Amino acid sequence: MKHIPVEERSKLKISAIVPVFDEERTVKKVVDQLLNHPQISEVVCVNDASTDASQDILESYGKKITLVNLPYNHGKGYALAAGIKKAKGAVVLFIDADLTRFYKRHLDVLIKTMQSNNCRAVLGYPVPSKYNLFAKSPLSKNVTGERAYYKADLLPHLIHMARTKFGVEMFLNNLFLKEETKQVPLRSLSHLWKHEKHTPKKAIKGYIRMGSEVAQEIGRKELREHSVLAQVVFRIRTYYVQAVAKSTYTIFSIALIISFLFVSVILLANVLSLNALQAYAITSNFAKFSEGLITPSKITPSSNSR
Q1: HSE-up of 45 (CA within 13 Å, CB side)?
Q2: pTM (predicted TM-score)
Q3: 223 Cβ partners below 8 Å, 6+ apart?
Q4: Residue pLDDT, tens place only, 117-158
Q5: Which of 44, 113, 161, 296 could be bridged to 66 by S-S, CB 3.0 to 4.6 A?
């Protein structure tokens, strides 16, 4: 994206893109907030094959929003890519559909930062509070869903973006240099956790899937920069996680695998001052140790994982 003078940026149309999957409890308030904002000219909602009342809620808006109904669930990366294709604005805002404490001032911060700074990406991260304890995590700033970009910057990357699923935020982070990205706090912002939206079983699988996909996207970046051995180690670890994610667990096994995913993401994200091969070795050994504590009959690899 070529440089745009500050006085021209405020004239650019803004499209808000909302990926939706089973968010019947919160999606209406999120969409209403977007429709009421004077600087947002279009709201694009992508229903990623929701199984609850989300589609009915979105369809009730009629022509007030641009609605994309996907026939089956593709994942967040695909939904965002589909929304970008439909968006007419030169600036696109990504807003999660599960936000609970979401106000006009949060949008103001994202938009004003994009318009007044010479940056190509704005990441709005939640501030730690009693409403959002995850914000204390060092990862929260990098995996936040509330973002702003120039549409022209993202169009060349839509094919790859559509494959990232929950790893889409890490993928987007890697598209721009640190000096091209601005991170801004969104005070009091919060969202529903998976265990607040789904059954315990569905929530646990959701957390595992999310952690796995984020870790895979971080790993893909490392693989592009390191040796074939690193690729082999990472693939083994990935297949292991996919196999376990589709299993039936004891409580202990669940806790162990979630811990493994968390450690894996932290190691790959921060690399703990180690090179890529050392980080892969640690996570691979952790996976091997975990596998030894789980009954073999409980692990059923799936040949149709996606």
Answers
A1: 30
A2: 0.69
A3: 230, 231, 234
A4: 889 999 999 886 555 555 455 566 788 999 999 999 999 999
A5: 44
Q: What is the pLDDT of residues 182-205, one digit of tens each?
A: 999 998 888 776 556 666 666 566
- Find residue 121's DSSP bridge partners: 149, 181
Six-digit token string for 203:
């929530």
Secondary structure element (H or E) that encloses residue 122, with its range: strand 121-126
- Structural domains of the chain sorted by starting position, each given as residue range(s) with its CATH number in brackets: 6-186 (3.90.550.10), 195-298 (no CATH)
Q: Which residue type is seen at 118?
A: N
Q: What mean pLDDT is predicted for residues 65-72? A: 97
Determine the pLDDT at residue 172. 93
The partner residues of 241 in beta bridges, in order of sequence, read none
**How many CB atoms lie under 10 A from the CB of residue 201?**
11
- For residues 21 and 275, give the distance between their C-alpha atoms in angstroms, rounded to a whole number: 37
Report the distance separating Cα 77 and Cα 172, nearest Å: 10
State both tokens at 152.
């022209």
